[in-house]
């Protein structure tokens, strides 16, 4: 059998996600381990073709990582016209995605893309339909469910630990510096609605698949959004108006297997962290509860639940946190982005099932769109099931 080379056009690899998580931690990491073992004697060898606007930056990247200097391009259409390129990957700014994906699908490339897949549900669905019609394979990054903490949570759910799940509370966020006296740690377009920014557009697509895959389909959304920091300073030191939401307080109803579940998730770039991890989900069920973060997961069973009594006259004598038990790893967890890349490449090479596709991506865009509308109109909105 031997080795099969798969050439992947990677657009947006000079960015935060494109570089760190996708190029370095996924594709180059797969090469470092000798390629992706397909399990039948064949190994898939990913060959990145770097695409972008700034040739010098791409050349510098190629050189830094020992990649072929010829595999650097600034003309996307020329790369898409190259029949040796099988997959188009997109980690550009959100506003540039829809157009590039449409062109890549039309050129017959398989598609792997960051979320959100488009800025409107209509456009996201149209991309899914276009890919289905063209018969290409397609996948959307839905990395959070590959995180060790959430995989442990899934294991608890599969094992029936919770009994009936009643509610989910998620806290996500951290302080993103305004950019004046300390540099902002996120790109400035994130804070401009006209450039595809905003925390709802960024995070609701994640909450959609996390909630749907673990607990049940999201049936309604009620969101309140805020722009807590109205002016920020960009990469060039210029002050700009933050036109996008930097915090979203959302309530989601879910169709759980044993009845409705309520999920409440706060997302904010204007909050200081007093938690163990940057995202945490507390799940409460009739038989037990859990708190899952990026890596760890702690549980408290019904049988070991203390009985606190409200009495503000007495100091708290015990640490509530110490009454929880750590869930063991019991498995090796690879980087979540790399794990999902591996599954997508197997889908392309072997046709193995893969349900994190452009239609799944469209559901995330739909939830973001409805979340923003709910906030603007000040009311709860049903989330209709998207046509399959
Ligand atoms: N899966 C996740 O957890 C996750 C996390 C953060 C961001 N994202 C998504 O990844 C994408 C990239 O986000 P990022 O934080 O890496 O952004 P970034 O600003 O760091 O990178 C953006 C990339 O797009 C390129 N680009 C193309 N056209 C551009 C234009 N017109 N203006 C500016 N840059 C342009 C830039 O050169 C750069 O390579 C976004 O769609 C975002 O929603 C996903």
Automatic annotation (TrEMBL):
Residues in Gfo/Idh/MocA-like oxidoreductase N-terminal domain copies: 51-140
GO molecular function, one term: oxidoreductase activity
Pfam families recorded: GFO_IDH_MocA, GFO_IDH_MocA_C3
Domain GFO/IDH/MocA-like oxidoreductase: 151-290
Keywords: Oxidoreductase
Keyword Oxidoreductase: yes
UniProt keyword GTP-binding, yes or no: no
Family annotation (InterPro entries): Gfo/Idh/MocA-like_OxRdtase_N, Gfo/Idh/MocA_oxidoreduct, GFO_IDH_MocA-like_dom, NAD(P)-bd_dom_sf
Gene3D superfamilies: Dihydrodipicolinate Reductase, domain 2 (3.30.360.10), NAD(P)-binding Rossmann-like Domain (3.40.50.720)
Recorded family membership: Belongs to the Gfo/Idh/MocA family.
Protein name: Gfo/Idh/MocA family oxidoreductase
Organism: Streptomyces tardus
Lineage: Bacteria, Bacillati, Actinomycetota, Actinomycetes, Kitasatosporales
